[in-house]
Amino acid sequence: MGDIEKRIKGKIEEAGIPLNKWGVSINRGIVTGLNEAFILSGAKKNDLIRIEPKSAEIIRPILRGRDIKRYGYQFADLYLICTFPSKNYDIEDFPAIKNHLLSFGYDRLEQSGKSINVYGKSISARKKTNNKWFETQDSISYWDDFSKQKIMYPNMTKYLPFYLDDKGFFQNDKSFFITGSNLSFLCAFLNSSLFKYCFINNFPELQGGTRELRKIFFDKIPVIQIQDSENEIYKELVEEIQRKKEDGKETENIEREIDDLIFNLYNLNNVERKAIGYIIIQ
User: Among 138, 113, 139, which Cα is nearest to 125's?
Assistant: First the structure.
């Protein structure tokens, strides 16, 4: 690490506090134990709702880790059956969903950890838990947080993309999400050139240049805290970027504006700003 990089990182660490002291929550997406049963295509979702309209109550749009982009997403028209154990659903209230799940076989859905032999073929049940056969593998006590504003990001990625979600997407276990206050600023910071320059090497590099963005590494990232009024500035900019991304429009000028605002927050001089430059990984 060169002298200028050490100086920049020193400024960031001195001004910031670790994210685990920010008062934000970082949670993993949903483990179903059998995605092919619990994640539906748009067509299958529509079929289930047509058969039994009540099914719509527990089906939600989902993003996978690969669907999350920098300031955006690519919706694959996939939906999750949200039979979380913490919700204590009675599957008899949802007959179409019950029949759909059973089409994959009770022996595969039960959460016993057992393996059985069916017509000479070994079939493994989901791992052993106290949850019912029709429920997801995770209890998901934080299910309500998916409906809140949140920053979504994949757990393994080359590109370090972060998306500020206000649409209530659920997500699978190949991703994480952050809830709390001043999320517009935090999303802008995580997508900034400064974050990539200072912290990309905080995340282990795996085969093929992929980075592992697990919570244990995020907790230690020091980020400067701002006032709610300052967050409003970033809110407008992030919303504008995400609108333009949805429309397929160029956003580099706004992203550079965010970089400059963040450089100002940390009182970086011209030499330090030039050393960082404009970094985009996508």
Answer: 113
Model confidence over 209-226: pLDDT tens digits? 899 998 888 888 999 999
The Cα 134–Cα 119 span in angstroms is 24
Residue 203 pairs in a beta bridge with none
Tell me the C-alpha distance between 18 and 222, whole Å: 4
Alpha helices in the chain (DSSP H): 3-15, 35-38, 42-51, 95-102, 106-109, 183-190, 193-199, 215-218, 228-246, 252-265, 270-276
Dump pLDDT digits (tens) for 15-36: 999 999 998 999 999 999 999 9
> CB neighbours of 61 closer than 8 A, spacing ≥ 6?
75, 78, 79, 80, 167, 168, 169, 170
| Gyration radius (Cα) of the chain, Å | 22
**Cβ atoms of 119 and 176 closer than 8 Å:** no
- Residue 131 has a CB neighbour count (10 Å cut-off) of 19
- The structure tokens 């504006």 sit at 257
Q: Give me the amino acid identity at 144.
A: D
| CA-to-CA dists, residue 107 to 118, 124, 174, angstroms | 10, 8, 25
Residues paired with 25 in a beta bridge: 179
Residue 208, number of CB atoms within 10 A of its CB: 7
The pairing of beta strand 25-28 with beta strand 175-179:
antiparallel
0.85 surpassed by pTM:
yes
Query: How many whole angstroms from its chain centre is CA 183?
Result: 13
